Amino acid sequence: MTLSTGRRTDIATRLEALDEVLALARDRVAVDVVAEAERIAGKAGDRLRFGAAHTVVALAGSTGSGKSSLFNALIREPVSEVGLRRPTTGVAHAAVWGDAPADALLDWLDVPRRHLLQRSEPDLGFDGLVLLDLPDLDSVDQRHRLEADRLVERVDMLIWVLDPQKYADKVVHERYLTPLAGHADVMLVVLNQVDRLSEAARKGCLADLSRLLDSEGLAAVLVLATSTRTDAGLDALRAELARRAAAKRAAVRRLEADLSELAEALEMQCAGSAARGVGRAERQSLVQALSEAAGADMIADAVAGAHRLRARRVTGWPLTRWTSRLRLDPARRLRLRDTPSELVRTSLPGPSGVQRARVDSALRELAERASQGLAEPWPTLVRNAATSSRSELPELLDRAVAGTDLGLGRPPRWWRAAGAVQLLLVATAAAGLLWLAALFAVSWLQLPDPPLPHWGRLPVPTILLAGGLLLGLLLSAVSGLFAKIGARRRALRARRRLAERVRRLADEAVVEPVERELAAHGALCQALSRVRG
Ligand SMILES: Nc1nc2c(ncn2[C@@H]2O[C@H](COP(=O)(O)OP(=O)(O)O)[C@@H](O)[C@H]2O)c(=O)[nH]1
Ligand SMILES: [Mg+2]
């Protein structure tokens, strides 16, 4: 059996939206709020499965107001014991009109005491009506009160039975009527025992009750005056019940009211302005702080130093070049490898206290700005998301450094050319030196002078020796200058590459978790507006 009214899709859509809200709210929103929403979602799903053929109406009120008397008057048979406060009054009675089987529905309501009224004479038009006589709301026995509450929560419609003495009863008004202000559509208020009032007193009492209901936001609720002694107002009550039972709308209306009330209660989740998201400036300062914590300064220095040293080893003046071999490569010292690999650890010292503090404050700032204007618990959720991988950051940063291509593995091509020229110049100088030595030996041995070519006024061997040495020194100086410029450029590039890598890390470890929370908030508020209907 399904509900055939046009509102079916309506409430189904709202319930689907509620499921979405629940999926997003679990683990985020306070457990009691989620539990309440789950309860209503569960109840609505259950109730809808039983269809709209039946309309479950409960008589609720405090002790002695006349619930059982009204119940008997409506079914015209004395089934529910009047004036009794024996244990049996802690259990609800049901009267079921019509042929449609209501057993499954009553099993779900957990009401075992049932009276079937197939055809009432005269026909009251009560087909499909299920009337419940509830335990007293103010019973001294807590179990009775809980049983009444349980059914107040589940039924489709409520008739609040008041009497002239206790019509302003605090229990009924504060605990039930006021919180159910959104349910006026599925409630009736009955002022019973009016036979005990004079005409004037009755009017005054009804006026007072109306004022009270008005102040509780229940101006729309229908108020009837009845008496089970004189039968006053009973026909009007019967007519109203017949009308509601025939309309078959109470079940859905009740659930709709529940959903609206729930949506209103959840509304504060979406109070305030919409989330701003992670700002570019906050993201940038986080990347900055993380880069510093990753040791960007130290790394840039090491890259520059390694570049200069390696340049000297290849292009330096060969006669003093060997001294550079004695010096330790700064990149090696930090175990920064030529070929990046995330699998090896560097021997960077890790972030200092100051650097950690800067990262923390960047995280805080980012979370704060991203969740600005949102109601709790969302700023807390966003902050937790931002700091979720905080303790792993040093490790992640080191891995990022190890995995960054710092440009160490690619020596400039001119180095080798310059190195070759240096060797050539040394060879030239050596040739000049040997030549001069040979000339010296010839002259020492008093042999005839061999021919000595000149270039301008200088002998060629002298030019070879001096030129080779001078040009070697000059080349070494020029190479050193270029290496210095190159070192600066490489340091900058290494910084940039590291920052790129760190940005990716910041996005994965911080920005994305934060944005997931903000997206959850947006989706929840969106779904909530559909729950509201
Ligand atoms: N005068 C008068 N007494 C009533 C009326 N309805 C019920 N009573 C009496 O009020 C007492 C409590 O009634 P009962 O139906 O047991 O109330 P319940 O506790 O709400 O179920 C009984 O003594 C009834 O006879 C009424 O309309 N007029
Ligand atoms: Mg009773």
Describe the structure.
With 533 residues, this protein is an alpha/beta fold. Helices cover 59% and strands 8% of the residues. The strands form two sheets. Strands 3-2-4-1-5-6-7 form a seven-stranded mixed beta sheet, sandwiched between helices. Helix 2 runs antiparallel to helix 9. The protein starts with 6 loop residues before the first helix and ends with a helix. The relative contact order is 0.11. Bound molecules: guanosine-5'-diphosphate and magnesium ion (MG). Guanosine-5'-diphosphate binds next to helix 3.
The number of helices is 18
The molecules bound to the chains, other than polymers, are:
guanosine-5'-diphosphate, magnesium ion
Q: What is the 3D shape?
A: rod-shaped
Helix content: 55-70%
Q: Give the N-to-C terminal Cα separation.
A: 24 Å
Taking all Cα atoms into account, the compactness measure Rg is 45 Å
Q: Overall pLDDT, averaged?
A: 92
**Largest sheet at a glance?**
7 strands, mixed
Q: What's the arrangement of strands in the largest beta sheet? A: 3-2-4-1-5-6-7
**Could you give the order of the helices and strands?**
HHEHEHEEHEHEHEHHHHHHHHHHEEH
- Strand fraction equals 5-15%
Q: What structural class should be given to the helix and strand makeup?
A: alpha/beta
Uncertain ranges = 1-9
Number of β-strand runs:
9
